[in-house]
Amino acid sequence: MYVRDLYGEEYPIQCTSTWKGALNGQIELTATIEWNEVNETFIHDLAEMWVIADHDDVEYKIIYCKKQGKGDKLTSSIRAIPLFIDVFNTQRIYDVYNQSFTAQAFFDLIFNGSGYNPIIVDSFYAQSWQGLGDGSTRLEPFKNGLNRYGAEFRLSGNNVYLETQIGNDTQIQYRYKLNASNISQEIDASEMYTYIRGYGDYEEGTEDLEHNAGLIREYTSPLANLIGIREAPPIKDGRITDVETMDEALKKVIDESLKISVQANIHDLTKQGYPVGQAKLGDRVFLIDERINLDEEVRIVDMSVTKDWKGNILDINITFGTQSLTKRYQSNLNSAAKSIRDILEGRIKLPYNVLDQAVINATKALQSAETELKFENGIIAVDPNNPNHLVIYNSAGLGVSTDGGQTFENAITYLGVNTNLLTAGQIHTNNIQIIGDENYFYWDGTSLMAINPNDAQRYVELKSSGLDIAKGAINIEREDGAVFVQNGTPNMDFNIDWGSPDYTGSGVVRTSDPSYYYRTHHADYRFMTLGFFTHTSRYVKIRLGMVAPTEATSIDVKISEFGNPSGEIWSGSYMPRTYTTIDLTLDFGVPDMTSRKGIYIQFKSSHQDVDVFLRRQWSYKHL
């Protein structure tokens, strides 16, 4: 550990520290710093706004510092928050954004210029935002983004990883009387629900959603058959237009309405060979206490860890949360855990003939080379012809050295693979297959191919000759966030439906002299026509032709949105003595691809009882 003053000077530190953190919640580091020969170099100057780094080299900003005497020496108590949180809470976004963002675009915007990098690990649905920024700190939209996209974050240096669920599925067990004590389970059913409705796809200010919302969905829990219907407050969000997104939101509210949490004090048995100290925030572990009939997989949602100055764990307190009322992959998980325990405890072993041939060959090769390996602080392999060339493998990773072990360039660590050490004239792709939980991905010497596991005829294939897309396996999003192509179908048309017969107001007549115009002699605005279109394009282009033949008379034209005649989109005043045309481009904002829009065209004469003439020459939607 070290501290850094306001001038950038760093000092080593010896102290007992406590790290506290919750999933997507407050994270802080507290420490008591006592006087000793190491700390005396800075303890008198230690103050707020200094930086302290923990045993994992994550930096924190000191926001509270209390100094007091202990005997004839000085002791300081500090509280610090991650430097990332401090930066995001003191930098602001001044521009205003009203549009749809993918998760990548959204977090790129929030992080831009902050010194931190967002790394999107999983896939998230795009979300529409109104009033984003407008002088808010970076931290406010960051927290809102986590909630809206359903993401969790973890810090690693200057990288912020965003995942649907941080942590790992582990085989770690916490058991009463072994490595856990004071286990308590809390179940809060005060706000437990079994039924919910959701309203989406409507404009802001819309009333009576039961009849006016474009999307209405409902969800009933299977538990309703057991405990009856318990209705949750409805979800009302006009920005939700997708059925799947709404259904997921409804199910999440019901599944999480029963609050179940478990707390326990954990005892560090790492030195006895038990991997308790390896569990981290978000990990899934097993918690067992026969006294309260508790034996299930739980998730670490809150924890505090106290360490001494050497990094040894002194105390751990963990709050667990169950994933839901029914555990994910329960039967498979239980049987897999039993088999793994049997293997680890020596009751069974894997038969040699079930191993892949490549594994068998590798095993033989390693066994034959055993005499060239040294088992010192891991496994060290030394080139018998050049002792300066060696490879070391231990719990920190895999390292390669060319100077006899004086320095190592990490090739593989828990953070990933360092491709600085990847050397290849050619990489031969002999039908590489990447098979996930929901998708198949193939890569050979001729093409890249992604196949839908439920329909082998729905695929995307990239070859040197071009890109082949089958059965609508493509979505294309525009730069402004609107979905241009969905499931292979373009969300577009260029038509505007003008009234037939035209929607003309009183005092407006159609004339063939001159040349098929609409004529009015009134000095107040009169309707010439009304048109409707689906909002699949942002712009509407119109060409108007006009004549105001009488000297000193002008023709005034106004275009308004349907349903709001006073909501003017455009207006202009002209004095065309002969036939004149004007071209207009009207902006209706980011397309939502579903709503219907309408526009009025109105005109008037600048002088009562003096004729002016107007016509619509052409019109179409654009982009």
TrEMBL record:
Residues of the Tal N-terminal tail tube TT1 domain: 3-82
Gene3D superfamilies, A to Z: 3.55.50.40, YVTN repeat-like/Quinoprotein amine dehydrogenase
InterPro entries per UniProt: Tail_dom, Tal_TT1_dom, WD40/YVTN_repeat-like_dom_sf
Positions of the Tail spike domain: 85-323
Pfam families, per the entry: Prophage_tail, TT1_Tal
Protein name, UniProt field: Uncharacterized protein
